[in-house]
Design brief:
The protein is 65% helix and 0% strand. By secondary structure, it is an all-alpha fold. It has a domain of 27 residues. The chain is elongated.
């Protein structure tokens, strides 16, 4: 195998893990901070669209401001 684990080693490890049953002792986060942090595990960001919209709005405001200054200075 590419990672160095033979099929026998994988089977043995799987058997050991099933005997240890670590999922029965798993408690997850206990503190409020830990719960908040794990609640965002699936968050992939997704801020790009919001930033683009803000950029468009800001550019429109800048253009309107420049147009207003041009009209005043004429």
């Amino acid at each position: 195998m590419a990672n160095g684990w033979s099929l026998e080693r994988r089977a043995r490890q799987a058997e050991l893990i099933r005997s240890w049953r670590p999922w029965e002792r798993s408690t997850g986060p206990r503190s409020a901070e830990g719960k908040t942090r794990t609640a965002r595990n699936a968050d992939k960001g997704g801020h790009r669209q919001t930033l683009r919209e803000l950029s468009r709005m800001l550019n429109a405001e800048i253009k309107a401001h420049r147009d207003m200054l041009d009209a005043i200075n004429r």
